[in-house]
Structures are given as structure tokens and as C-alpha cells.
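User: Hi! I'm working on a homework problem where we have to compare a predicted structure to a textbook description. Could you give me the structure for the chain below?
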Amino acid sequence: MTQFLFVYHGGTMPETPEAGAASMKEWTDWMGSLGKALVSPGAPVGKSFTVALDGVREDGGANPTSGYSIVEAADMAAAVEMAKGCPMATDDSGSVEIAEIMPM
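Assistant: Happy to help. Predicted C-alpha cells:
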């Protein structure tokens, strides 16, 4: 099996404790549905900086990362199918970027 990095972009913070609990349940249910394919649930991330030859940007760039997970799948098509159920992909405020983790 191949490992894939799911990088989450966007999303919104829940406005109430009840909305936060509902959001957490969506994530827990989705991750539970992945079973053993979920290698690492990852975590949300804080503000990011971008370091490049021309300097440091403190705004996270054009599409800041908001979190990540690692999954195993037979191929990219299977990983894409897994990501389609992610709360980030079913909310119009976010997206999931998928990249194969290359063995070294």
C-alpha cells in the first residue's frame, strides 16, 4: 500500500460549543470510517510562515495549510475517494490536497 498526505486548506472555526461538538463528531466519524487506512490522524496546525529566497511571508501563502493526515491506499484514485468524505471537502470553506508520499 502507498501512503498519501492529506493537507487541509481553509475551513472555519465553529461559532458555538454545540457547532464545535458537531464538527468534531463529523471528523471522528469520517476518520473512523477510514479504519486501518488511517496511518496518522494528524492534527490542525497554527499560523504558517513561508520562507523563500525573496524573504519570509507571515500570511501562510496563497492557500494556507490548516491541518494534515496520512492515509494508506492502493493508488491515488482510492485516496481521492477517501478524501471525498472528509468534512473539509464537504464544507464549501475548505479543501483537501492529496500527495503521494514517495518512499526513499
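For your comparison, note the following. The first helix runs from residue 17 to 34. The chain has one domain: 2-48+61-100. Good luck with the assignment!
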